[in-house]
Amino acid sequence: MEVNGYKIEPGANLSGADLGGADLGGADLYGSDLTYANLTGVSLYDADLTGANLRGALLRGASLQYAELGSTDLSGVQMEGANLDGANLAEANLFTANCEGVNLGGANLRGANLMLTYLFTADLSEASLRQANLERANMERANMMDADLTSAILQGAKLDSANLSGANLSGANLTDTKLRHTILSGANLSGVNLSSSNLSGANLSGANLSGANLSAGAPANSGFGAFRGAGANLRGANLSAANLSAANLSGALLRGATMPDGSIHD
């Protein structure tokens, strides 16, 4: 297969290639070099890019539904508005990638590196992010309904006004995370580390926080403060065995919540 004078085949050298708007649906580009390539608006529907190197590539508005991107290097890519619905990105590297408004609904991002990735307003609903590294990623206003974030690293991440209703965050590290006005209703936060996090105005109604750590939990002079949950909605939440020492829950709505000692808040 040849497009714009470039051979489209496994292991192809397409570094810097201009393939903007090309139809590469179903293409086999396993292990190819696409560093800094122009893939703006390209169709890579159901394409195989496993282990490929796309570092610094332009993928704005690209269609990558159901594409195979496992272990692919996508660090520093610009893919605003791209569609990766149902794509496989397990163990992929998206370090510092710009994924604003990207559709990753139902995508597999298990074990992926999304450190410092920009995911503002992205759709991650029902995506698998188990054990993914999202440290200091920006997911403000993202849709993460029913996403699986089991044991994910979200330390220092920005999730203000994001929708995580029904999401599974059990065992995740949310230390120093910003969750202001975030929707976490019905979410599973059991065993989560929320020390130093800010959930002011967040909605945690019906959430499971059993065994969660909401304490200051930081070494002296670390710069981290206590958990901040002023004005949070914790109606009906399960806080059994949670560590609330030094947590700020002033003005929080706790009616019907199961408290750490097993009592039900009136």
Reading the helices and strands in chain order gives EE
Uncertain runs: 216-226
Please give the alpha-carbon distance between the first and last residues.
68 Å
Q: How many DSSP helices?
A: 0
Query: Any idea what the shape is?
Result: elongated
Radius of gyration: 20 Å
Structural class, by secondary structure, is: little secondary structure
How many β-strand stretches?
Answer: 2
| Strand content range | under 5%
Helix content: under 10%
Strand order of the biggest β-sheet: 1-2
Sheet of most strands: 2 strands, antiparallel
- Residue-averaged pLDDT, rounded? 88
Q: How would you sum up this structure in a few lines?
A:
By secondary structure, the chain is low in regular secondary structure. It has strands at about 1-5, 5.
